[in-house]
């Protein structure tokens, strides 16, 4: 499976596809700091997850959605032209580079459905993908056409950008929301009733239950909503970043990510004691990433943190950790009690780590780590807390982040920009 993923991904070269650069095997060797295994070298997506910047149940406006949806279908059209079906389009597989350009990633479930030389195609039979994004024809044992599956996934992604959530848990009658979609009962309800006829006809055309009636990518490109001129394409990276994070600003999330007294988006990048940020600055720092506030002020300097799921508190890590664990218990999230992170020499550091996991409200698994470290704010001891997601939907991860922050045990200690 991994070999197929690498061979296919390596051949794909497009501005909206995360580039596969190389792969190498590290053998067991005590003289190297790398763990034994197979390493894939990929293009740096310094802007992080697209959906990490979107407020849950709010989404982004039509202008930003149009901008990124246009890039998604451009990349997808190229992939299909190479005879490849992605089959796992979902928020966590859409990344941004340092300029804010969308990159389609993770070809682990892809399939070759067409030979470029002859144009000969084949139907696919493997059942795969994540339930909220998978097309309904995959519910049967009948072989299916490849391209309509990705069109469906792109339609779900457009819905999710506009609304801040997926339309349903899964495309079966077991899902209350999907059953209402099948009967048309949903269209007078939020969020369907937020949108005009143009975007609604595009979404429903891409989400036609019968794949033979579904819009093709060619149909999508010629749709009036897609053909309209972009309102933000030429306004520069700073405006793009501000428009992308507008819903987070309105919800107050950015005031938590970058509280009072922290460097603003124009702050200079500091060099920490180990010199790591010198290396990171050239690869990660740009007008776009700085405007997204992807650099956190920590005790050792300013650090690149690609996710906007962090916060600062007025109490230190040792006091904060049990309060977070109390919040996790109330939220019914499984966790392993806080432990000290070991440094490169195998010694305990001052950083605490809480490993967490569970299922979100869409029944998708999530896993990740909460790290807490000392941070002095205004001459007083405090903590810097960063939530790193290993698996799961970025929107659900943001919901968990907000739930922890707003929990009765943690909220009184969270610093904010007033």
Automatic annotation (TrEMBL):
It comes from Meripilus lineatus. GO terms for molecular function: ATP binding; protein serine/threonine kinase activity. Keywords: ATP-binding, Nucleotide-binding. GO terms for cellular component: cytoplasm. The keyword Nucleotide-binding applies. It comes from the Eukaryota. This is Protein kinase domain-containing protein. Pfam families: Pkinase. Residues 1-226 form the Protein kinase domain. One of its GO terms (biological process) is intracellular signal transduction. The lineage of its organism: Eukaryota, Fungi, Dikarya, Basidiomycota, Agaricomycotina.
């Amino acid at each position: 499976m991994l070999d197929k993923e690498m061979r296919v991904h390596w051949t794909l070269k497009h501005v909206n596809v995360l580039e596969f650069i190389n792969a190498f095997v590290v053998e067991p060797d005590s003289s190297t700091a790398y763990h034994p295994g197979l390493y894939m070298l990929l293009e740096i997506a310094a802007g992080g997850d697209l959906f990490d910047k979107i407020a849950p149940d709010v989404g982004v406006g039509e202008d930003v959605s149009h901008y990124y949806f246009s890039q998604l279908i451009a990349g997808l059209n190229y992939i299909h032209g190479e005879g490849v079906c992605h089959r796992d389009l979902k928020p966590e597989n859409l990344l941004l580079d340092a300029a804010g350009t969308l990159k389609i990633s993770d070809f682990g479930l892809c399939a070759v459905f067409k030979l470029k030389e002859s144009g000969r195609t084949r139907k696919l039979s493997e059942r795969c993908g994540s339930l909220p994004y998978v097309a309904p024809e995959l519910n049967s044992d009948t072989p299916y056409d490849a391209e309509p599956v990705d069109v469906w996934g792109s339609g779900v992604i457009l819905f999710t950008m506009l609304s801040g959530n997926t339309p349903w848990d899964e495309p079966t009658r077991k899902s209350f929301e999907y059953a209402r979609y099948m009967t048309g009962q949903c269209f007078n309800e939020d969020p369907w009733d937020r949108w005009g006829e143009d975007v609604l006809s595009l979404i429903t055309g891409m989400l036609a239950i019968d794949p033979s009636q579904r819009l093709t990518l060619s149909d999508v490109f010629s749709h009036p909503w897609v053909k309209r001129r972009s309102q933000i394409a030429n306004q520069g990276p700073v405006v793009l970043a501000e428009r992308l994070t507008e819903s987070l600003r309105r919800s107050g999330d950015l005031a938590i990510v970058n509280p009072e007294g922290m460097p603003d988006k124009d702050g200079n990048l500091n060099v920490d004691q180990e010199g790591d940020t010198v290396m990171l600055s050239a690869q990660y720092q740009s007008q776009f990433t700085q405007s997204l506030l992807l650099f956190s002020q920590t005790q050792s300097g300013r650090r690149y943190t690609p996710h906007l799921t962090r916060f600062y508190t007025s109490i230190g890590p040792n006091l904060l950790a049990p309060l977070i664990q109390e919040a996790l218990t109330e939220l019914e999230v499984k966790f392993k009690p806080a432990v000290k992170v070991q440094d490169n020499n195998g010694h305990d550091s001052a950083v605490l780590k809480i490993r967490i996991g569970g299922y979100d409200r869409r029944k998708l698994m999530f896993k990740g780590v909460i790290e807490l470290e000392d941070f002095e704010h205004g001459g007083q001891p405090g903590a810097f807390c960063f939530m790193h997601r290993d698996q799961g939907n970025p929107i659900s991860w943001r919901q968990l982040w907000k739930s922890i922050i707003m929990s009765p045990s943690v909220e009184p200690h969270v610093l904010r920009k007033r």
